[in-house]
Amino acid sequence: MKPVLLALMFLSEEHIAQMAQTFEVVYAPDAPQAAAAIAQHGVRVVLTIGAVGLSPAQIDALPALTLICVLGAGYENVAVAHAKARGIVVATGAGTNDDCVADHTWGLLIAAQRRILALDKATRAGIWRTALPLPPNVSHKRLGIIGLGTIGKKIAQRALGFEIEVGYHNRSVRTDVPYRYFADVAALAGWADFLVVATPGGAGTRHLVNAAVLDALGSRGVVVNIARGSVIDTAALAAALREGRIAAAGLDVYESEPAPPAELLDLDNVVLTPHVAGWSPEAVQASVDRFMENARRHLAGEAPVTVV
To answer: I want to staple 269 with a disulfide (CB 3.0 to 4.6 A). Which of 95, 245, 248, 302 is the partner?
Structure first.
């Protein structure tokens, strides 16, 4: 008899079929379906994402649960301490979509700095370059990264091709990188031309980028968020963009998601994408494969590849 897997996020038919080779898959990609599934099935493994998570109450409602896996790196809404107290293993997909997220970060940054969307709109309207303001360079600037984990390091690596100076804020200094460390986010923003948010979400980083940080970034600064929407104060960001206190923003995540950020929709100095920085055929397949390997190891009595 196959162990029961409860999947709490969107999955393609192909990936459900891949998982069904090992598991009896209970697919519950929304809250009502999840509540019904938890009540009715003897779930051994849960697959979730950081934004959905798994609460203490949900964990307690699953007496047969032994493994929680996150399809991605973030696990901010998974009750990790509660799970561990019950002897439940928690594992992630860390490292499977780093390149995809770093690539997307630079797409957002370049589009925001070079005003790509506004220029596309102007071109379609027949407006020639001499009637438009000049978009500034990307190269030879300063990039500040909030959170120099594996994704942050990939973003920094790509900056070198633009001959950009890199600085970072982290919980502690990294000894394996040559970049300048800032103990304070506002100080990093004051130094940087571009500020990229690549830190984990959760209560500890909520509104880490606030009005004071945006003011420090300044009127020619660009902020990019590919981490979690909660890290940036959306109201403060909207005000800074409208008042010209920063130049532009590129956001793949926002506090209102999956609903779009209403405060930003009428602004032409914002580039928005629907939380897809880590989504590509290659990255999603790698994440699913990592889950399958983590689950295989766990069910065989071994440690998963990426344990929290």
So the answer is: 248
Catalytic annotation, residues: 228, 257, 275
Q: Which two tokens stand for residue 121?
A: 């709109």
pLDDT digits (tens, 9 = 90+) for 139-171: 999 999 999 999 999 999 999 999 999 999 999
Q: Which pairs from 204-209 meet CB under 8 Å and 24+ separation?
A: 205/230, 205/231, 206/230, 206/231, 207/231, 207/232, 207/233, 207/236, 208/146, 208/232, 209/146, 209/185, 209/233, 209/237
C-alpha 193/C-alpha 198 separation (Å) is: 16
In this model, does residue 40 exceed pLDDT 90? no
CB 231 within 8 A of CB 254: no
Q: Please tell me the distance from the alpha carbon of residue 237 to that of residue 211, in angstroms, as a whole number.
A: 7
Neighbouring-strand partners of residue 167: 144, 180
Side-chain half-sphere of 277: how many Cα atoms within 13 Å? 31
Q: List phi, psi (to 5°) of 297.
A: -65, -45
Q: How confident is the model at residue 212 (pLDDT cuts 50, 70, 90)?
A: very high
User: 257 with 229: CB under 8 angstroms?
Assistant: yes
Residue 220's pLDDT band, with cuts at 50, 70 and 90, is very high
Using one digit for the tens of pLDDT, what is the confidence trace for 86-141? 999 999 999 999 999 999 999 999 999 999 999 999 999 999 999 999 999 999 99
CA distance 39 to 44: 13
The structure's pTM equals 0.91
H/E segment holding residue 47? strand 45-48
The single-letter DSSP state of residue 181 is: E
| Bridge partners (DSSP) listed for residue 89 | 67
Burial grade of 209 (CB within 10 A; 0-12, 13-18, 19 or more): buried
Half-sphere exposure of 123 (CA within 13 A, CB side): 6
* CB-CB neighbours of 281 under 10 Å: 9
